[in-house]
Write a structure and sequence with these properties.
Elements (H helix, E strand, L loop, with lengths): L4 E3 L2 E3 L17 E5 L7 H4 L3 E5 L16 E8 L6 E4 L3 E3 L18 E8 L3 E5 L2 H6 L2 E2 L1 E2 L2 E2 L4 E3 L1 H13 L37 E4 L5 E3 L2 H6 L4 E4 L3 H12 L7 E2 L7 E2 L2 H11 L15 E2 L2 E2 L1 H10 L7 H4 L1 H18 L1 H5 L10 H15 L11 H4 L4 H19 L1
Parallel strand pairs: 3-9, 4-7
Antiparallel strand pairs: 1-2, 3-4, 5-6, 5-8, 8-13, 10-13, 11-12, 14-15, 14-16, 17-18, 19-20
Length: 410
């Protein structure tokens, strides 16, 4: 059993040390990130996060292993001017030095910093000293019930400050723009993009050397390290910014990257701010049936609201909480957009190098309908969906799955 401590209203699990065991053939799906002291300061941002196994009996955790990679991403607001910037803290294997020293960011006076974490495995735990976790206002679930792939520090304070700057006219969020299909460009709250656990993971990438060391993905490091591999997070945000937007003729919201000399870069926080400002109805918001917000397999309003607060979404209400309504919008609005854009998406590249973007998105939508229990409510693993069975909805969802099969294979 992993030892844990509860820090006030937020849930942080701190892994206890154990004697390492030989790694199994299957990569350990549960890893822990050691949060550095003062994580929201310039010094803390530039201190590498150390990745280790939450339970070493299941094997080690290594950042360059695709199924174990963890990624950190910071958004920075200058409250005096409303200017935004982004920084990508580095993750390294515990006990290893980075392949190149991290860049120390120059933060504006009074900067408000938010941090988000993504994970390619199953369950990411934020570890480190209780003082560091409190200083970062870190959250990775409700008590011992963790979100899974997602965690954040200082997120709610960042979004509160950013939204205040918007109201004061200091921060202007760019419009979503118009896609090649004549419709508004999609956001991370568009039903054609979201899946069963939306608003998760980040756009950060890292560089990796053949000996397993990692470095921030900067132009200088790419030159100095020869031909490093690029590590990426399997992310809703990266899917939108790097694949869907280019395919539809859209431009992602960017801000200067303090990691790499101010070049424009994307981030989860930028995407959520733009989605909140510009996404037209129906708007996809985290439902109670989201697998990352369940507690012991059951919907939890408290956990869902913790998650929503970390991605700039309002607290649950009856209209936005329903998994049944979420399912209906996936199979109607989501399917409609994919069908309309099939020619633009079919040949476009996707995160899966061997699959076109249309098939990738339709497979994703079909999987979401099934995982949320949209097609078979009575057999759903998510009680929020099972409690709302409707034969008409079930038949319509089943028809949607058949349409998706035709769309991706036609």
């Amino acid at each position: 059993m992993v030892a844990a401590v509860s820090l006030g209203a937020v849930g942080i699990a701190v892994a206890a040390p154990r004697t390492p065991a030989p790694p199994p053939a299957t990569p350990n799906p549960g890893c822990t990130l050691k949060v550095p002291d003062d994580p929201l300061s310039a010094r803390g941002l530039a201190t590498p996060y150390q990745l280790s196994a939450t339970d070493p009996r299941l094997g080690a955790c290594h950042e360059p292993v695709d199924a174990q990679g963890a990624f950190a991403e910071a958004a920075i607001l200058d409250p005096a001017t409303g200017k935004l910037s982004v920084y990508h803290p580095l993750v390294v294997d515990a006990g290893r030095r980075p392949a190149a020293p991290p860049v120390v960011p120059a933060l504006p006076r009074g900067a408000v910093v938010g941090l988000w974490f993504g994970f390619n495995g199953d369950t990411l735990t934020l570890g480190g000293s209780p003082a560091a976790l409190r200083a970062g206002q870190c959250v990775n679930g409700l008590g011992r019930s963790l979100f899974g792939q997602v965690a954040f520090c200082g997120a709610q304070a960042f979004f509160d400050a950013a939204n205040k700057a918007v109201r004061a006219g200091k921060l202007r969020i760019p419009p979503l723009g118009r896609a090649t299909d004549g419709r508004p460009c999609p956001s991370v709250r568009d039903f054609s993009l979201v899946d069963q656990d939306q608003s998760d993971n980040v756009t950060t990438t890292y560089l990796a050397t053949p000996d397993g060391r990692t470095a921030q993905a900067t132009a200088a490091n790419a030159r100095a390290l020869g031909k490093p591999a690029t590590l990426a997070n399997g992310s809703d945000n990266r899917l939108l910014d790097a694949f869907v937007d280019p395919a539809l003729g859209c431009t992602p919201f960017t801000a200067p990257d303090l990691t790499d000399g101010g070049r424009p870069t994307t981030s989860l926080a930028l995407n959520e701010l733009q989605a909140a400002a510009g996404q037209r109805a129906p708007v996809a918001l985290v439902p109670q049936g989201d697998p990352m917000t369940l507690v012991d397999g059951k919907p939890s309003q408290a956990k869902a609201n913790l998650y929503r607060a970390g991605v700039d979404q309002p607290a649950l209400d009856r209209r936005s909480a329903s998994t049944r309504s979420y399912c209906r919008n996936l199979r109607t609005s989501g399917l409609d957009r994919l069908t309309a854009d099939r020619r633009l998406l079919r040949a476009a590249p996707s995160p899966d190098g061997g699959v076109g973007l249309l098939k990738f998105l339709t497979d994703r939508l079909q999987g979401s309908l099934q995982q949320l229990g949209c097609t078979h409510p009575a057999a759903s693993a998510h009680p929020d969906a099972a409690a709302e069975p409707d034969p008409a909805d079930q038949a319509a969802a089943t028809d949607a799955v058949r349409t998706l099969d035709t769309l991706k294979n036609g």
